[in-house]
Amino acid sequence: MSIPMEEERIGFIGIVIEDLTQAAKVNQIISQFQEMVTGRIGVPDHDRDMAVIGLLVRGDNIRVGSFTAKLGNVPGVQVKSAMTKK
């Protein structure tokens, strides 16, 4: 019995870095999943010592879930994602 392959989807991952000391860790995780990232924008908020990163991604739900879980486990980092239905 074979396991069906997950469909590749397009999505968005929004990352808010509330603790800028964690920025290097966030970038390290993004590098681990770089083959999925098709676009990136980063906006620092120097007045609040925060930053926001938006990623356009392409991948299956399992891989995107792994990506967002690793990011979400970093202290001081908030993550939200949205994926296409097909």
Tell me about this structure.
- It is built from two helices and four strands, in the order βαββαβ.
- It has one domain (9-83): ACT-like. Chain A, domain 2 (Alpha-Beta Plaits, 2-Layer Sandwich), CATH 3.30.70.1150.
- It is elongated.
- It has helices spanning 23-32, 61-72, and strands at 9-17, 37-45, 50-59, 77-83.
- With 86 residues, it is α+β, with helices and mostly antiparallel strands.
- It has a four-stranded antiparallel sheet with strand order 2-3-1-4, covered by helices on one side.
- The two termini are 24 Å apart.
- The mean pLDDT is 93.
- A hairpin with a 4-residue loop joins β2 and β3.
Task: Please indicate the count of domains.
Answer: 1
What's the CATH C level? Alpha Beta
Number of helices: 2
Q: Which architecture per CATH?
A: 2-Layer Sandwich
According to CATH, the homologous superfamily is ACT-like. Chain A, domain 2
Strand content: 35-45%
Spans of at least 5 consecutive residues with low confidence: none
Terminal CA distance: 24 Å
Q: Which fold name fills CATH's third level, the topology?
A: Alpha-Beta Plaits
Radius of gyration over all CA atoms, rounded: 14 Å
Which range best describes the helical content: under 10%, 10-25%, 25-40%, 40-55%, 55-70% or over 70%? Answer: 25-40%
What is the molecular shape? elongated
Order of helices and strands: EHEEHE
**Can you count the beta strands?**
4
Please state the average pLDDT score.
93
Strand order of the largest sheet: 2-3-1-4
The computed structural class is alpha+beta
> Can you summarize the main beta sheet?
4 strands, antiparallel
